[in-house]
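Entry 14. Ran structure prediction on the chain below.
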Amino acid sequence: MNIKVNISGFDSVGMTNSSCSILLWILCIKNGKVWVEQDSTDLCVVDDLLAAGIPASDIVLGFHHPNKRKLTEFA
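Output, structure tokens:
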């Protein structure tokens, strides 16, 4: 699933077009594991999950190919 949202408008002067983007995480729980399907931010949601006490063995980096996933410390 890929979602891109672009909101266009005018700045305070009303002369130039500006836009903003929405940052997105896609998380789901499958078979007792937290799957990170997408992290299009520079905040790294995985670090937040680890800080919240979720072990790396319960986090799946779904945006990586399965062959690449087994090379990480994550599920």
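The first strand starts at residue 6 and ends at 10. Will compare against last week's run tomorrow.
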